[in-house]
Amino acid sequence: MSKQGAPLAVIDLNADAPCYPPLAQRRVPAETAAVLAPAFKALGDPVRLQLMSMIASAEDGEVCVCDLTPAFDLTGPTISHHLKTLREAGLVDAERRGTWVYYRARPGILRQLAALLSVEPAPSSQA
Predict the structure, then answer these.
(1) Do the Cβ atoms of 93 and 61 come closer than 8 Å?
(2) I need a labelling partner for 57 at 20 to 30 A (CA). Which of 11, 43, 91, 125 fits?
(3) How much is the pTM?
């Protein structure tokens, strides 16, 4: 039997509502953990966490790389590397406009990550 199975994308990272309960309510399935781990790993770097915060809180919902780079004492290529990591983790989308690239957060996956980390108690079954 082949060890290669179906792709792991078993959850909709763009869904408005969480696809699974918080980890405080139920064990996270291995497939879900495998899909979400790259996003958590990407956010585990301080620069990427700051970049994500800047992008997610952008007034117009998007921000130009030209506005991100000066906020750090890092080279342009280093910032580009961090942004690429955020893109590959599915946390941001990018659009090239002329010589500049604009980034916007993907709210669906951010909601999924936030819901997974929620510590709210399970809803009561009593009416």
Answers:
(1) no
(2) 11
(3) 0.78
